[in-house]
Amino acid sequence: MPYRAWYQCINEQCKEQYSLNTIIYRCRKCDSLLEVQHDVHALARRDAKAWMKLFEDRYKSSEWPHGSGVWGKKEWVLPQIHNDNVVSLYEGGTNLFWAERFGKMIGVDNLWIKLCGNSHSGSFKDLGMTVLVSQVKQMVSEGVPIKAVACASTGDTSAALAVYCAAAGIQSIVLLPKGKISIAQLVQPIANGALVLSLDTDFDGCMRLVQEITKDQTIYLANSMNSLRIEGQKTVGIEIVQQFEWETPDVIIIPGGNLGNVSALGSGLLMMRDLGLISSLPRIVVAQAERANPLYRSYLANFETFEPMQAEMTLANAIQIGNPVSVEKAVRTLKQFNGVVVDATEQELADAAALGDTTGMFNCPHTGVALAGLIKLLKAGKIDRSEHVVVISTAHGLKFTDFKVAYHEEKLDFPCQYANKPIELPPSVDAVKKALDQALEKRRTADV
Fold first, then answer.
1. Inter-residue contact 363 to 333 (CB < 8 Å)
2. What domains appear along the chain, each with residue ranges and CATH number?
3. What are phi and psi of 396, to 5 degrees?
C-alpha cells in the first residue's frame, strides 16, 4: 500500500507542509515547530487487528529491518525510506520491568518501569536517532550535500548520534557543556569518532550555538526540534501498549528536559487511538528536577505563561535545561492527555533512585526524578494505588556511576537515606563474622 509522510507546521492557523527531504527545522512561513504527519486514511485501510498482527509478527524478529522496535513499525514512522538506507542497531524492544517490590514500598500495586536504557548506546535517544540518521543517509544517497550531523547535548543525545553516524559512515559533531556531563557520557562520542566540542557554557548555550552552525545546510541538526527524532521516540508508547497485550496503562510518567520526548510519547499513543488499536488514553505526567523546572512553573500557572529560566546544577544533568525547545509541543500534549507536571528536589531524586536500586533496578538520576514524582503524586492522592502506572527510565545507570558512588559514600550535600557503604575490615575470620552478625541483624530489624 502507498503510505506517505511529510513535515507539517504545528500552528493550526498555518499548517504549511514540506517534504521530509527538505532541510528544515521550523516553518518558513510562521517560524513554528514542525511535526511529521502521516496519511492516516491510507493507514486506516488496514484494520486495527491487522496492524497488531503485523507488529507482533515482526517484533524482535531477524527480518531486516523489522526486528527493530522502531522499524517494525516502519509504515507509522518513515514509510518512504528504502530499507538499504535504514541505519539500525536493533533499538527498541526494551524490558518492561515489573517493579513489584518497589511498588509495595511506595503504595502502588501495578508499577512497571520501561527500561529504555537497555539500548545500544544506553538511552532512549537511540529510538529517535535511528530515524534521523537513516533519513540523512537516504538524502545523501539522493545527492543532498550533507557533510556532517550535529547536536548540542548533555550526554545521551551525543552518544546516540555518534554511534548511529559511525554505523552509517557519516561524520558527527557534538557540542557538550564542559564539566557538566559524566565521564561515561563524554567518552561515548569520543570512542565513536565524533568531532567533540567541549564548551564553557551550559546546555542552553550549546543549543544556541548548534542552531547557528546548522544554518549552513551542509551540517544537519539532530536535536529534538528536528521532527524526525520524535518519529522514532514515539514508538516507546506504542511498544508499552503492545507489551501490555494492547491494553493502555492508566498513567505514564516521563522525565522532562528539552521536552521532545513528551510530545513523542503522546504522538504514538494518539496514532494508536486514531487507527483503532486503543480506545482510551493514559494520563501523562512530566517530572522535572526542581533546579531546572520551567515547565512545572508554567503548569502551576495553568500554562497561561511560560518563562525560560537559568537552570542550576542538578544531579539529573541530562534534564538541566532552562529553555526547552519543544515546550510548545509538550504543553499541547499535556492538555490532550489530562497531564500533570511535578518536580523533585536533589535529595528526593537521589533517594528515589537509590531506593529503586535496592529492589533490583539500577537507575539513572533522571529516572530518580520520575520515581520521586510518582511518590509525591501518590502521597497527594493524585495517583491511586490501584492504577496501572508505567515510569519511563530514560538511560542506563552505568552512565552515572559517579552519581551513585557519591551517593553511597555520602558525599552529596544532603543526607543520603539509603547509602550502603562497603565495610572495611582486616582479613580476619572473627572480624568478618562479627561484622556480618551486626549488619544482618541491623537489616533484619529494619525490615521488621
1. no
2. 96-122+230-408 (3.40.50.1100)
3. -80, 140
